Amino acid sequence: MKIWLDGELVDESAAKISVFDHGLLYGDGVFEGIRFYNRRVFRLEEHIKRLFESARAIVLELPWTPEEVCKFVVETVAANGLDDGYIRLVVTRGSGGLGLNPYLCKRASMFIIAGTISLYPQEHYENGLSVITCATRRPAPAALMPQVKSLNYLNNIMAKVEAIQADALEAVMLNEQGYVAECTGDNIFILRDGVLYTPLVSDGALDGVTRRVILELADQLGVPTVEKSLTRYDLYICDEFFLTGTAAEVIPVVAYDRRVIGTGKPGEITKRFIAAFKELAGSTGTPID
Ligand code: PMP
Fold it and tell me: What residues line ligand 1, using a CB cutoff of 6 Å?
């Protein structure tokens, strides 16, 4: 596997980061997860725009333009000869002292991995997922801005531990006020009486690229959408429930806190979203060559 690291495509064994890198020492950095289908990178510019916005919000300066970063991503995918897969792009603050001060880090480091990912077993895409509410809360926006896709994922990892310990594969995380925020790596959608609802970004959800795609597809499918604060009650009584994310794609939820959702099978409207998403992802995007 060839890894793009600070301007060069190197062998996996040569792709090394300093132990003094603040991404490792403090989780000081930002990242993106991007998919490619049929040798086309899905929503590449949108992901890179979000990356630059995340970086800007944490005062992390990238020594490349968004156009250059898009080119590096395409080069990395091309160098690895995959038709379909998942890209992990990480920007760290770079090497600095052992103290927190980010201004002592001279230059940001960036690496790009083009590989594959499988978030949930395939059977759950067909039969649906069981999820639970976890005790671990999303940090308040004043503590960690939810729009920033930072390297600080310990909160989500603790939520994932709770899910696995409860024999579930995914956890719904609430915010400090008790409103539904998101899952550990996915955005949440529910359908109730034909209306599609998703939590507000300001309630602690990432402004997911797949979330935006679903809201666009809803317009095309004639499904009305509402972004609002949701409670567990809204999720308990919904007709259909699904999760979205670049790695997860679109996956139905059929049980929540051991309550059956809808008919206990993936919902009909959810299936239409899955099909529309597949169609769009498989036919659009930045070509690899
Ligand atoms: N929430 C979190 C916490 C995530 O890590 C992700 C995955 N990037 C998402 C939501 C979904 O976002 P996207 O559709 O942009 O991948």
Answer: 33, 156, 182, 185-187, 206, 208-211, 244-246
